[in-house]
Amino acid sequence: MIDFTRPRLGKEELDAVADVFDSGWVGYGPRSGAFEAEFAEHLGVPPEQVLFLNSATAGTFLAFELLGLGEGDEVVMPAISFNSGPNATLSCGARPVFCEVDPWTLNPAAADVEQAITPRTKAVLVLHYGGHPGHIAEIAELCARRGLALVEDASCAVASRAAGRAAGTFGDMAVWSFDTMKTLVTGDGGMLRVRDPELARRARRLSYHGLAQPADGFTPPPWKTWAFEQREIARRLLGNDLTAAIGSVQLRRLPEFVARRKELAARYDERLRDLDGVRLPPPVPAGHESSHYLYWVKVHRDVRDDVARRLHEAGIPASYRYGPLHRVEVYGVDCRLPKSDAAADETLCLPLHQGLDDQDVDRVASCLRDIIGS
Description:
By secondary structure, the chain is an alpha/beta fold. The chain has helices at residues 11-23, 30-43, 56-66, 84-91, 110-116, 136-146, 197-206, 241-272, 304-313, 338-346, 358-373; strands spanning 50-53, 74-78, 95-99, 121-127, 149-153, 161-162, 165-166, 173-177, 190-194, 288-289, 295-298, 347-350. The protein has two domains: 11-250, Type I PLP-dependent aspartate aminotransferase-like (Major domain) (Aspartate Aminotransferase, domain 2); 254-373, Aspartate Aminotransferase, domain 1. α1 (11-23) packs antiparallel against α8 (241-272) and α3 packs parallel to α4. The longest helix is centred in the last third of the chain and has 32 residues, at 241-272.
């Protein structure tokens, strides 16, 4: 069986975890702070903007809390996205509004976002599908013009760039995921970036029970360890030094991981280029860099599920990610999005991770050719 996704972890990560064990401290501490600073340097932003959390989902919930979303507010987001977005929206009392995506790129255009904006819209949440930055620069310009907050879900885009800027630096806030399926893996974990300095300081308070930190002006005497000042009601959302130590190693290895994914995507392109009935992923536009998180093909909706079933029977897992959120009954949304429906019904993601061999790609491509040909 070929793995659909699999992290690449080794001795260097084990040694880093052993160092944390030896330090006697495994919670949020110096390793977490170091990982935040390293990730901030990777993005090209000040380190005080970046906060290591236990998940990207926690970051999304926290971002919407920082924005003060509430009853009567709306958040526009693509229908092809992960469910953390609408879940976070509804948890604030606000309402998710789903916009269209291009059925091939699975990213929204600025016009798709603008069409979904109403007088009640307070924020826009955008996913970079499969690691492709999409039209993020144009969407950021639209949000600035309309006075809307922009939150980037850069979970798929840890090494993606557009117009010389890292994905996740266009919006007011951004989140990254480091779960076991991602390109950079910490097991569980995520990063939140907050551009506004005051909101960034508040994010740190809200990530640790609402307690004031020394930078916020409260420093108890060193002997009075039980003293604290609580300014807000909040939860504990922080990451820890064990997962941060793994993240620091993975971040150093990230260029190697992305280069390998790019090679594998190019090999899929070569092996599948002339296959009738299959449309390959869109090329990465000039000036953009992709993390190559997903490799997706499009086949006719009448056969997509059967193709996935037959690949599975041959020991090749194929999947579809993400959504379609506008069809999820619990969200209570009644809208017609034909382009998103086409994306959801015709897309199939093939195995892609840095642990794949060339022979694995050849096997997947050969099996897909046989199935489509039959």
